[in-house]
Write a structure and sequence with these properties.
5 strands, 6 helices, about 140 residues, alpha+beta
């Protein structure tokens, strides 16, 4: 079994919305062969809690406005370290960069096929690593002052 056309449509719009809010390392997996509860996962990350919230809000607003989709469940909103939007057909995970590294969801789903994403979303690969290197350099420079 593969992800439905509806799931692909939702994933693509959610990925574009996340990219528009400068999410890092956007990736989607077709999990339909291994899970019966959903067709696909979208993973995205951001370097701050505020940006995580902004990405989540944009994804939710765009899916509602353009496709009439509302999440049946939204979790993790209060801390904004890992917010999950469950649309039944897809599940969107937006994580703070630190949580993304710690939980490494990509390792769990690496055997599932990756889904093709819009160019803007695909171009976000590696941005979290760039951010981490800049942050480490800034921290080091701060220690030297």
């Amino acid at each position: 079994m593969t992800a439905t056309d509806r799931s692909i449509e939702l994933i693509n719009l959610a990925a574009q919305a996340a990219a528009d809010k400068l999410a890092h390392d956007i990736i989607a997996y077709d999990v339909s062969d291994v899970l019966s509860i959903t067709d696909a996962f979208l993973l995205a990350s951001a370097p701050s809690d505020r940006q995580v919230k902004s990405i989540v809000d944009e994804v939710e607003e765009r899916l509602q406005k353009e496709l009439g989709a509302k999440p049946v469940r939204r979790e993790g909103d209060r801390e904004a370290r890992w917010v999950l939007l469950d649309y039944v057909d897809i599940v969107v995970h937006v994580q703070h960069s630190e949580e993304r590294v710690f939980y490494a969801l990509e390792r769990l789903w690496k055997d599932c096929p990756r889904m093709e994403l819009p160019e803007d979303a695909a171009d976000t690969q590696g941005r979290a690593e760039e951010y981490a290197k800049r942050q480490a350099a800034d921290d080091l420079n701060g220690d030297l002052r």
